[in-house]
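Quarterly update, task 2.4: coenzyme A-bound model.
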Amino acid sequence: MRARALPGPWWLVRRRQDLPSELDWLSSEEQRHLARLQVEKRRNDWLLGRWTAKSAFLGSPYWAGVDTDLADLTVRQAADGAPEALLRGRPLPLTLSISHRRGWGLCALAPEGMLVGCDLEAVEARSPAFLEDYFTSEEQVALEGLPSVETDRLATLFWAAKESALKALRVGLRADTRRIQTTVTGGLEAVETWRSLAVQDTQSDRRFGGWSRMLGELTLVVVTSPSSGEPVALDNRP
Ligand SMILES: CC(C)(COP(=O)(O)OP(=O)(O)OC[C@H]1O[C@@H](n2cnc3c(N)ncnc32)[C@H](O)[C@@H]1OP(=O)(O)O)[C@@H](O)C(=O)NCCC(=O)NCCS
């Protein structure tokens, strides 16, 4: 008998124009952090990440029955850069990952103990030197001989899977991206439905279940370890 897959992680996207004009939904710790961000793009991305993550909590079971408001929730960066969520200073029993690209924010949430990472990437051409430097030889072989539009799409997917897994491992791009090996298991069509991936950290031999889909011109990837079912959309507009 096949083991039942664990329930998938939750995911939500938000657009920059969804951001409220007031900032009263930020906690005092978040207000202090924002005041230190001087570069406008960084401020905008950081705010979009916070808003997307808080909107995701609102739609998730973690928020059900909680009598509080969004300013009681802090989404902070731990010393290693990974995001963590605290409700009135107490860590919530979940893991989360954030990405922002071209005015879109993505957040993935998973139960405590499950590693989760997500990434949003624009499909674009990558040079042969880039592929050689950052991709595994198996990934380079998978890219060979494809029509260029498919090469760009697959290379973007591989890159998003690497970033997602390295975020789930809380190391980010400080690590060698070639330690992450991705295989497309669910088809490569450019569709707005989830397709499965197998992702492995060859350094630790940890395996991730991955999912990818398109969102307009962007590729979305979510990975979890242990692997789990298809990501579940959250939508509960505050
Ligand atoms: C994590 C990293 C891969 C993100 O890449 P990116 O394409 O620039 O940005 P994305 O929008 O996809 O993701 C940004 C989010 O990653 C998350 N993140 C940052 N460092 C992380 C880490 N070590 N582990 C997990 N998640 C991390 C943050 O939540 C961040 O969003 P926030 O700043 O709003 O909180 C990259 O920033 C990184 O490797 N950072 C660590 C090393 C570093 O600082 N290198 C300098 C540049 S190479």
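Highlight for this quarter: The pocket of coenzyme A is lined by residues 45-46, 49, 77, 80-83, 98-100, 119, 163, 167, 170-174 (CB under 6 Å).
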